Each structure stands twice: as C-alpha cells, then as structure tokens.
Amino acid sequence: MMRLGIIGAGAVAGFHAQGIADIAGLTLTAVCDLNAETAGNVAQPWGASVYTDYQEMLTGGVVDAVVINTPHSLHKDMVVAAASHGVHVLVEKPMATTLEDAKIMEAACEAAGVVMVVGMIQHFMAEKLALMAALQSGVLGRVLMIHDYRSTDYRPGSRPDWFFDKAVSGGGAFINIGAHCLDRSLWIGGAPAVRITSSTLNRFGAPVETDGTMELRLANDVQLRITIVSDTPENIDEVLVVGERGTITADPRRGTFMKIDGVRTVLHTSSADDIQNAFTAQLADFHAAVRGAAPAVSGTHAKHVVELVLAAYESAQSGESVELTPALVR
C-alpha cells in the first residue's frame, strides 16, 4: 500500500483525495495546509492526519509519496525536501517558475532515486483523449493548425491573493491558464515549439497579465494560436484542430465533435464525472510510474511548457518573436 500525502488543500485537493480513495493500492494518510481547517476539510472524510508544516509531515514517516498542490514558486523547495526524505512526488503544473528550478527538482529526485511526475491534467480529460484517438486513427490526415481559446477570471479578488503576486505565482494568466493551453496544444500538435510571439494585457488594475495571445510554430510546421481572455460573458474552453481532411473541437463542458466533408460526428459527450475521472487516472499513472512505468507526461515536455511561458513573457515585453533553442526539448 502506497501512503500518499497532499501538500496544499486548495481547489483541486478534493479531486486528488477522491482519486486516491478510488485506486487500489493507494491510501491518503496526511493533508498539509497552512490553514488547519482547510486541511481538515480534505482529510476528515478519509481519516487522514492534518499538518500545517510540510517538513513535519515529511519527517513524520507517514507518507511514501506526496501530491504538491501549492503556489508555483514553492514547488522547487517542496520537491527537493520530499526527495531528501525518499518521498515520490506528483507536482501540479506549472512544474516551476524558472527552468533553473525545474532542473534542480529533477536532479534532486534523480539523486534520491525517487519518481517525480508533473501533473498535466489535460492528458487525462476524456474530451482530449477522444480528440487524440481520432487524430491517431488518421481520419483527419495531418494536423495543420490549432486554435486554443480559453477564458479565465483575473480580476483582483476573484482568486487567492498569491495569484497576483508575481514573486509567488511567476506571473498571471499565462503561467496559470496558459500552461494548460500550451501543454494540451503541444501534445495535440505532436512537436515542440521553435518560435513564439505573444502579447499581453493588464486589465482591472491587476499587477499581472489578465489576458493575452500566443502564436507558435511547432517543429513540424503546425501553426498554433492560443487566446486567453478574462471575465468573458460565457465561459470558454475550446480547442479547435484543423486537419487536412476535416476539423475537431474539444470542450470539457460539451464534448468532442468532428466534421469531415459536411458530416458531423460526436466523439465524446461530456459528463459530470469527467473531471474526477481525469484526476483519478492521473493518480493511477503516477502510481504506475512509481512502480517503474513511463508516465504519460515526460519531464522534457513539462520543462518545455515552462520554457514557453517564459519565452511568451519575453516576447510580450520586447514585442519580438522568440526563437526556441532545441537543446532543451530534443
């Protein structure tokens, strides 16, 4: 039985806790949060211990692995601490706020002989899996273009304060929401990016970017455009894929739909269980990785997402495209 702890009892901690309960061979033994009541709300249904100091939890000998679900800039120190105690890690995206931190995390885990997997939930969402199955069948031919359009809410007060503190979060909508968009679009596109051009907006008096666009060219010449907009009239979360013979859209609120030569096909209809099922599948993937399997998301891919977020910030500031050096991602 692998004993898991959760560090950070925020918005998705409940999904992690339920997923742990649903997988044979896993048990939730500890939940840590600076707020004991918040930690207790996640821990209580499963009889897990409550901590307010993650170091105390790691030294207590109560966990074999942890899920790190904390503000982005804290990931590095927490991963290094877990590794030093021989504890495996599933760390939420983005992996880190700098490439240097990401490399330190990888090196610490490798030296300690523990597994680190970066939580990229898009790879486990049913509507994205249906999209990928269609692409892999070859029915659309080669992917030519992707448009990823997602709404968010970056009005001050709409989310915890740390999201608006760049020293803690690493940035605004790009590093938070954009990391999801980059992750799934690179996966769908099938290659790393070699060029990125971006622009950002700072609305609502927010100290971090609230909106923006990214345009990327992938190494296989797929064109990718990502648009992130705050406070839209209706929530938007759609990936549109243009192939040689047709198009596919995927939306977690609706499903996955394909159209070829005027004929529309429903590939997946979304259900209320899809999000929980994705978190459970991600935990099962992590459990398998600890036992020696290759994880669904590689460390190389996770680092490339960080690299692209940082390059997007560079491009937005300079007004110029940023060419990506291939050494990191090949």
What topology emerges from the helices and strands here?
Layout: E1 2-7, H1 13-22, E2 26-32, H2 36-43, E3 49-51, H3 54-59, E4 65-68, H4 75-84, E5 88-92, H5 99-112, E6 116-119, H6 126-137, E7 143-152, H7 166-169, H8 173-189, E8 193-201, E9 211-218, E10 223-230, E11 237-243, E12 247-251, E13 255-260, E14 263-269, H9 274-290, H10 299-318, E15 322-323
Parallel strand pairs: 1-2, 1-4, 2-3, 4-5, 5-6, 7-10
Antiparallel strand pairs: 7-11, 8-9, 8-15, 9-10, 11-12, 12-13, 13-14
Helix pairs in contact: 1-9, 4-5, 5-10, 8-10
Along the chain, the helix and strand elements come as EHEHEHEHEHEHEHHEEEEEEEHHE
The residue ranges in which pLDDT falls below 50 over 5 or more consecutive positions are none
Mean pLDDT: 97
Q: Give the radius of gyration.
A: 20 Å
Can you tell me the overall shape?
A: globular
Count of separate DSSP helical elements: 10
Distance between the termini: 36 Å
CATH topology-level fold name of the largest domain:
Dihydrodipicolinate Reductase, domain 2
Largest sheet: 9 strands, mixed
CATH architecture of the largest domain: 2-Layer Sandwich
The proportion of residues in beta strands is 25-35%
Please, what is the CATH homologous superfamily of the largest domain?
Dihydrodipicolinate Reductase, domain 2
The secondary-structure class comes to alpha/beta
Biggest sheet: strand arrangement? 14-13-12-11-7-10-9-8-15
What share of residues is helical? Answer: 25-40%
Number of domains: 2
Domain Gfo/Idh/MocA-like oxidoreductase N-terminal: 3-119
GO molecular function, one term: oxidoreductase activity
Protein name: Gfo/Idh/MocA family oxidoreductase
Domain GFO/IDH/MocA-like oxidoreductase: 131-248
